[in-house]
Design goal:
This protein is 49% helix and 10% strand. The chain is mostly helical. Helix 1 runs antiparallel to helix 4 and helix 5 packs across helix 6. Strands 2-1-3 form a three-stranded antiparallel sheet. The two termini are 25 Å apart. It is built from nine helices and three strands; from the N terminus they run H-H-H-H-H-H-E-E-E-H-H-H. The structure holds manganese (III) ion. Manganese (III) ion binds next to helix 1.
Length: 201
């Protein structure tokens, strides 16, 4: 069983003007697709990996044979991380978080405004390529974290429920070097109902 790139739930231009159609086309159709292909190449012929989900593999990188561990970490991470990113974005979204996740964010960070400040800071201070995350830790508590490259929170025992890609390929076509503008725009396309579902599976 190979890892499948899930179909986008919306059109490339659905997140305009916040995330532009050209960026979506290249990001989903080229960058993400390539991670998925390279991930499948890495696990090909290794039935102990092929039978697991991408999330399961990333949750236990130590169990991955050493000859493909780096390829799995980078490309499996790229495959799974982007799947979450597309999943928690959507048109006619943004605003205040709804459902259980709204009060949970207020409890964990003081308020939604304080959460935004801290989450933006995580995205801004990730030096070079990487991600900012809202995760659920082993105690069920919410945390903000960041990772370099395509490292997944799953590999340190945390479940990601909100993903912000801060690789330049996520924003350079529209925003060039202006990462803060991209992050501010990102809040307008967060599908909080989906984040809430991931928080309360
Ligand atoms: Mn990306």
């Amino acid at each position: 069983m190979s890892y499948q790139q899930a179909a986008l739930k919306y059109a490339y231009d659905a997140l305009e003007p916040f995330i532009d159609a050209k960026t979506m086309e290249v990001h989903y159709g080229k960058h993400h697709k390539t991670y998925v292909e390279r991930f499948n190449t890495a696990i090909a012929g290794k039935p102990e990996l092929e039978k697991k989900s991408g999330e399961e593999i990333l949750s236990n990188l130590e169990a991955v044979p050493e000859d493909v561990r780096a390829a799995v970490r980078n490309n499996g991470g790229g495959a799974v991380n982007h799947s979450l990113y597309w999943d928690i974005l959507g048109p006619k979204s943004g605003g205040e978080p709804q459902g259980m996740i709204g009060p949970a964010i207020a409890t964990a960070f003081g308020s939604f405004a304080e959460f935004k400040t801290k989450f933006t800071e995580a995205g801004m201070t990730q030096f070079g390529s990487g991600w900012a995350w809202l995760v659920v830790n082993k105690d069920g508590k919410l945390e903000i974290m960041k990772t370099a490259n395509q490292d997944s929170p799953l590999s340190v025992g945390k479940k990601p429920i909100l993903a912000l890609d801060v690789w330049e390929h996520a924003y350079y076509l529209k925003y060039q070097n202006r990462r803060p503008e991209y992050i501010e725009a990102f809040y307008n396309v967060i599908n909080w109902r989906r984040v809430d579902e991931l928080y309360c599976p």
